[in-house]
Design goal:
alpha/beta; four-stranded parallel sheet; globular; two-stranded antiparallel ribbon; Ribosomal Protein L13p, Chain: A; about 140 residues; 6 strands
């Protein structure tokens, strides 16, 4: 019995659609990062991109547990003196709701060229519409 490793020629990525309505951000990010990496497939190989494309819609309807809407903050820094910007979670939801999910997923992906390539297969949209109907994404129901 021999072990076969996946390579880019043998992998055919699919498209997955996830509706983020009333889903907890962290639990959604775990599922999305596993799909992007391909850990849900039996042919998962750590050094090869075996993951699928993920479309997340209704990003503005995600939830946090506990008091995170009041307490959680997102920090950005421009590397100039006084260039630190701290944005509360409620303000981030109002301005850029896609960024909440993107940052959560990004921190769960491996750092390096392969992880950055896999993160590029994530498409997040605030509303219910997305421009990827031609790819015929399969809808994934999450609780």
């Amino acid at each position: 019995m021999s072990t076969t490793l996946a390579n880019p020629q043998t992998v055919t990525p699919k498209w997955v659609l996830i509706d983020a309505t009333d889903l907890v951000v962290g639990r959604l990010a775990v599922t999305v990062s596993n799909i992007l990496r391909g850990k849900h497939k039996p042919e998962f190989t750590t050094h090869c991109d075996t993951g699928d494309f993920v479309i997340v819609v209704n990003a503005e309807k995600v939830q946090f547990t506990g008091k995170k809407w009041e307490q959680k903050e997102y920090q950005d820094y421009s590397h100039y003196a006084g260039g630190q910007k701290i944005t509360p979670a409620k303000e981030m939801l109002a301005k850029k709701p896609e960024e909440i999910i993107f940052r959560a997923v990004k921190r769960m992906m491996p750092r390096g060229p392969l992880g950055y390539k896999q993160l590029g297969k994530l498409k997040i949209f605030a509303g219910n519409q997305h421009p990827h109907q031609a790819q015929q994404p399969q809808e994934l129901k999450l609780k």
